[in-house]
Design a protein that fits this description.
single chain; mainly alpha; 9 helices; 52% helix
């Protein structure tokens, strides 16, 4: 219960602090390309329950119908403003709303697309025992994931190398997780934005 309260308080404070940024980013997204400001992606949460993850839209409005659920390097669906939002991770800020709704935590395994969760092994499915997070040990390790996913066979690389390694990293983190380690991970994530 303590973690839920901590997450909720920090998410609420975070939304208050970044609300001016929301007011700045929203019209820039609208001016850059037609479509909504936010993108709602279907993801799998705690106990395998699907939910809609919020992001600032960084791709063309119908990107999910034009290609895969993962973005590879040089993906033409990414807008000009979207490239900046993705590089700085500002596109992730609306997930504070998911935290307030209790669908996500500040720290936890990143929520995955249902198509990939369907392929999890029984061991990998253990990540679904906790609420997914805005940041995780694996998301920091793979901060520049799109650069690894290049060439014609990028999806195979994601399924066979990147995703299994991310899941193993998050499972290892969950075994030793404390409130202190979560706080360190949050601070490392904030620092990485300015890296």
């Amino acid at each position: 219960m303590c973690k839920c309260i901590f997450d909720g308080v920090i998410a609420l404070l975070g939304l208050l602090v970044v609300s001016p940024l929301f007011l700045l980013v929203a019209p820039i997204i609208k001016l850059d390309s037609p479509g909504p400001v936010f993108y709602r992606a279907e993801r799998i949460g705690k106990d395998g329950v699907p939910f809609h993850l919020y992001k600032f839209r960084s791709m063309v409005a119908d990107a999910d119908r034009r290609g895969p659920g993962i973005t590879a390097e040089g993906d033409r669906r990414v807008t000009r403003v979207g490239a900046f939002l993705r590089r700085t991770k500002l596109d992730e800020l609306p997930q504070l709303i998911n935290v307030l709704k209790g669908e996500m935590s500040l720290v936890g395994p990143r929520p995955e697309d249902p198509r990939y969760v369907a392929r999890y092994t029984p061991e990998q499915r253990q990540v679904l025992a906790v609420r997914p997070g805005i940041t995780s040990a694996a998301s920091l390790a793979y901060r520049h994931e799109e650069q690894l996913l290049s060439g014609e066979d990028w999806e195979t690389i994601y399924r066979t190398k990147v995703l299994p390694d991310k899941l193993a990293t998050d499972l290892a983190y969950l075994e030793q997780r404390t409130l202190g380690s979560d706080l360190k991970l949050i601070l490392r994530t904030i620092a990485a934005v300015f890296d």
